[in-house]
């Protein structure tokens, strides 16, 4: 259980450290990869704080991969089940791919399309890690208890969340925080993109309110709790987004906005999974005991 939680937390933290790299203009603090400089694996004094920030993010990336390795080994050794093992293996594989994409980002001198792919893969990794934690902590999903139309509403909300993230990546790629003063932008108008980003954001908010309202009347109770949690995070996101736009995108608020986006993805995964709450452990054990008694 601890390894699963460490996997999720480490994937969220690296979004924060990666955001710090970008928002402080440290994207090219290390000019090559895997070395920081051609002649040095670690930062040299001439790189200053930018080299330290970029190298710290790389070190944390290695920690993320190491935690993913531990999670996979534990899942296999403890026979946690095929689903958990496959999820752990997928998280490990994508974490390694993420490190290689980070190298491409540096080699391409922070092209906004490569940076966007780098961030979106982090969103996927956080969501997968959340599913992994769910399977380890909560257990296998039970039978579907929600009607199909309720499931469709939740999936529509999830689709809106994906759209918000994608448009957010494009908006960031048009804005001032390029990771380095000389890095290219995607050519889109940042003022226009802020409005374009807001539209699916408000749609997501409306759909989440609808999901909460339905869960309040129908349940399951676990689904209601996670839906309320997602609504709370999205409301904070809306406030942070509006304030950062009005204040000229201060780096602290932009960083918070980035981290909350992946937190939303993690909670969104829990909302989907909670539509099928697990069967009580006691009930499963009682059935197994009854079956064993009949066979005896």
TrEMBL record:
Membrane topology: Multi-pass membrane protein
UniProt key word Disulfide bond: yes
This protein's record includes keyword Aminoacyl-tRNA synthetase: no
Localization annotation: Membrane
Classification via InterPro entries: COX15/CtaA_fam, COX15/CtaA_HemeA_synthase
Pathway participation: Porphyrin-containing compound metabolism
Transmembrane annotation, as ranges: 59-76, 83-107, 119-137, 149-170, 199-216, 228-245, 251-275
Organism: Agrococcus pavilionensis RW1
Coiled coil residues, start to end: none
Protein known as: Cytochrome oxidase assembly protein
Cellular component, GO annotation: membrane
């Amino acid at each position: 259980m601890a390894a699963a939680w460490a996997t999720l937390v480490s994937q969220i933290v690296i979004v924060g450290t990666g955001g710090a790299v970008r928002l402080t203009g440290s994207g090219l603090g290390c000019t090559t990869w895997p070395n920081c400089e051609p002649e040095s694996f670690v930062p040299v004094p001439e790189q200053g704080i930018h080299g330290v920030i970029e190298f710290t993010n790389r070190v944390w990336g290695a920690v993320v991969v190491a935690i993913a390795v531990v999670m996979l080994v534990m899942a296999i050794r403890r026979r946690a089940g095929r689903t958990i093992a496959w999820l752990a293996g997928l998280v490990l594989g994508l974490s390694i791919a993420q490190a290689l994409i980070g190298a491409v980002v540096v080699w391409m001198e922070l092209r906004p399309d490569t940076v966007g792919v780098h961030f979106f893969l982090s969103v996927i990794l956080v969501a997968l890690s959340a599913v992994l934690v769910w399977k380890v902590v909560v257990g296998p999903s039970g039978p579907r208890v929600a009607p199909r139309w309720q499931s469709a509403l939740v999936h529509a909300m999830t689709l809106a969340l994906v759209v918000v993230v994608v448009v957010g990546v494009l908006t960031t790629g048009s804005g001032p925080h390029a990771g380095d003063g000389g890095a290219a932008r995607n050519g889109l108008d940042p003022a226009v993109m802020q409005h374009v980003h807001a539209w699916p954001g408000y749609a997501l908010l409306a759909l989440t309110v609808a999901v909460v309202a339905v869960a309040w009347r129908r349940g399951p109770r676990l689904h209601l709790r996670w839906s309320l949690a997602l609504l709370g995070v999205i409301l904070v996101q809306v406030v942070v987004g509006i304030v950062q736009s009005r204040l000229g995108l201060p780096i602290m608020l932009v960083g918070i906005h980035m981290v909350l986006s992946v937190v939303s993805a993690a909670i969104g995964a829990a909302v989907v999974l909670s539509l099928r709450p697990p069967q009580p452990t006691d009930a499963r054990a009682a059935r197994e005991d009854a079956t064993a008694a009949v066979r005896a």
